[in-house]
Amino acid sequence: MEPVRIGILGLGTVGGGTVALLRRNAESLRRRLGRPLEVTRVAVQDPDKPRPADLSGIDLTTDAEGVCTDPDIDIVVELVGGVDNAEPLVRAALGHGKPVVTANKALLAERGNELFRFAGEKGVDLAFEAAVAGGIPIIKALREGLAGNRIQSVHAIANGTANYILSRMRTQGLEFEEALAEAQDLGYAEADPTFDVDGIDAAHKLALVAAVAFGTPINYDALHMEGIRAVTGEDIQFAAEMGYRIKLLAITRPAVDDGVEIRVHPALVPESAMLAGVEGVFNAVEVVGDAVGPTLYYGPGAGAEPTASAVVGDLVDVARTLGAPPEYRVPYLGFHAEGMREPRWAPIEEVETEYYLRLQAKDQPGVLAQVTRILAEEGISIEAIRQKEPLPGEEDVPVVLLTHTTRERAIRKALAAIDRLDVITGPSQMIRLEEVGTG
Ligand SMILES: NC(=O)c1ccc[n+]([C@@H]2O[C@H](COP(=O)([O-])OP(=O)(O)OC[C@H]3O[C@@H](n4cnc5c(N)ncnc54)[C@H](OP(=O)(O)O)[C@@H]3O)[C@@H](O)[C@H]2O)c1
């Protein structure tokens, strides 16, 4: 059988892994597909850079656009990353009738709606399993395996770097900056860690997951996003004393009035929760469906071959339906175009959950009474409250509270009033508590 000819843009971590995997598993892929998958051209920026991958028989070029328009290429794989530089390449390939496989979450979170529309007009696939949670096939699970369900919630640990930092803060008693420096030394975090620690990378992935879970357009701007910089060693320790771990979670679930919540932030999860046991650079996604109940998907969220595993999975899918009419293919986001709905994206103030609060108070009588009075005025009931010992060399005492379920609007109002009290000496900490499945 004629080989399926593949052009790859980018030969970095994921591109290199993809070339290596396609070569190593060429025979089993041919058996699955009935045709060989053959990389014929690869575009890079610097042709003189040493490449660990075996490039024999491959045309190495700096002309990425030429690969996208080459009539002898059947499928283009975009692995250059970035938004402004990748978009024209993806458009060029789609515009020339070539399906595209990409790992680029930033591109799809920001420009996905237009790109999927364009791919639809051209009648070709735009596949993106590798863009979400690396090697975990969560897009396929949500789009196909769970299609019989109405999705009730998705809670994901979707950024390995942030999860590594929080894990090290807990197990080694490190502060955020120390754990970040360690992650940078080990190559888990970039010199500029913004995307990972401020929640942007997890938010890009969540924007795609929400669309696939609920049949909505991708709406990155609707997302509420907080990173992990403000989580302290004290928070992690106090949470542990109360039986919780702190994770950076990407969450989407239906809200009242046909709304959808979409938010990335640190969250307390019970230490018995399956997600609590996900440590280090691993990712996990918990999906609850109305029929199936809770399901958990766990695995490496990044890295050369784990991400290549998702890229190659997409290549097999796309190659199987090359040239087939669109109605014979799975829609990009899993919903028929006429079934897609823009929901009401629920603002964060509407979220109802439990809350962990840490206040910094003067060590004097009456503090707890003033704080509890304000919470009561907002209708917030307290599950637990503890006044801690002052930290060595400090006069202030931390006061830690867990609330019962309440609306975020009420918590924000109460905290603003608490922070104005004379007995409160610094800004208060608030971390949401999430109900997730326990093992
Ligand atoms: N790394 C991961 O574990 C991971 C996991 C999931 C998803 N992703 C996504 O996968 C994509 C690629 O990530 P990566 O980590 O593999 O990136 P990377 O290691 O930085 O590699 C980027 C590659 O693109 C090439 N390149 C950049 N601009 C180009 C252009 N205009 N024309 C031709 N080649 C160009 C570079 O060429 P030179 O080699 O010549 O510099 C390099 O080979 C990103 O969208 C990323 O978000 C990565």
Describe the structure.
The chain has 439 residues and is an alpha/beta fold. It has three domains: 4-134 and 305-337, NAD(P)-binding Rossmann-like Domain (Rossmann fold), CATH 3.40.50; 138-300, 2-Layer Sandwich (Dihydrodipicolinate Reductase, domain 2); 351-433, Alpha-Beta Plaits (2-Layer Sandwich). The chain has helices at 13-24, 26-33, 64-69, 86-95, 105-122, 138-145, 160-172, 176-185, 194-197, 200-214, 233-241, 304-320, 367-377, 408-419, and strands at residues 4-9, 37-43, 59-61, 75-78, 100-102, 126-127, 151-157, 224-225, 244-255, 259-270, 282-289, 293-300, 344-345, 352-361, 382-387, 397-403, 406-407, 429-433. The strands form two sheets. Strands 7, 8, 9, 10, 11, 12, 13, 14, 15, 16, 17 and 18 form a twelve-stranded mixed β-sheet that branches. A six-stranded parallel β-sheet has the order 3-2-1-4-5-6, with helices on both faces. Strand 9 (244-255) and strand 10 (259-270) form a beta hairpin. Helix 13 (367-377) runs antiparallel to helix 14 (408-419). The mean pLDDT is 96. NADP nicotinamide-adenine-dinucleotide phosphate binds next to helix 1.
